[in-house]
Design brief:
Helix content is 45%, strand content 16%. The protein is built from 17 helices and 14 strands. Strand 8 and strand 9 form a beta hairpin. Helix 7 packs parallel to helix 9, helix 8 runs parallel beside helix 14 and helix 14 runs antiparallel to helix 16. It starts with 10 loop residues before the first helix and ends with a strand.
Length: 425
Amino acid sequence: MKKAAIGKQDFREIIEGNYFYVDKTDFIKEWWENGDDVTLITRPRRFGKTLTMRMTEQFFSVKYAGCGSIFHGLKIWEEEKYQKLQGTYPVIFLSFAIIKEDAFEKTRKKICQLIANLYADYSFLLKSDRLTDNDKNFWRKVSVDMDDVTATMALYQLSIALHSYYGKPVLILLDEYDTPMQEAYLKGYWEELILFINSLFNATFKSNPCLKRAIMTGITRVGKESVFSDLNNLKVITVTSGSYASTFGFTENEVFAALTEYGLADRKEDVRQWYDGFKFGDCNHIYNPWSVVNFLAEQEIASYWANTSSNGLVKKMIQQRGKKFKMILEELLIGKTFETFLNEEIIFSQLNDKESAAWSLPLSCGYLKVMQVKRCPNGKKKYTLSITNTEVRNMFDEIVTECFRTANVITANFQMRSFPEIKSL
């Protein structure tokens, strides 16, 4: 029986270490055949985004040419044309997961350091006669202290250099793209960061002639006018989208097969109650992978989905919203549902006063799930939302209780008739 290792996010390490793994390599085929230029995928925290991005990097990257053995026996290796594709593209992989600073200059410096690290990894290109003198002169400007023009053009220029050296366009994988934006909103330097990020993203993903395809992952879909105003080549996959629905998280069949393998088949109902309930597109019964792996390791039902920075966004929104919003949250926590319109673009400036924005945030974070979608006569969709599962209810209850205590909100004797949009399950 394979060991259920906690927290491992490197695909190759998991496969070569013979750790527990649910085969999600069919994502590679689905993404490649969809052919989208730039794909943004939003999923809750700890749902396998980083592992999927590392898997994609290690499949396509020339750094892993000749390492196809790590895919042997997996779904993607069943077709010869994909065997031939492994290790054939230059890939730029970057993660913003560690960028959680309290000021813009610190955030900017960390982004610059990550980019400088990429250049250091490819320093052998400086010895190549395939790079022009201009390419090499730009290369020498890249550092943790580079100016804004150099920093925002750095991934663009690295793409050109890699294309010149390998003779093929690049794939760019940006993991946890929205982490610094969440921190900027919480810490009060949003406007400064967005100017910088806009320039970086436009050069990297829109105006880059050497870009083959790109993937970005995150928890939230940041509003287009904030970040993606110039990216008309962006395919957005949110929690309500049909594409890649079973890639992130475990399906019920996958979970039950794992429970049987680990001799825990008699715990199916407990696991379903605690960790099931997520829904992506029309794919129901998606289980929290972090919690399931922890359960396989500990063989004990518990709340494993620890708090992270995404909770900070929800806490701030709850604290700043009105009494009606907080009362509806209380009713959701005791098993009620709530109907609302949604706009899955998270516009941070609207979280305090626009209902569709407010409910989209806990949905994207995984705290709420869509029970039903109803199309209205005006063409808009109205969503019925509920708390996702027992584990989420316990965690969310702590968040809401803390926010209520902070805001000194008293909700005793709440009358259901005041809010007819709330319904019993």
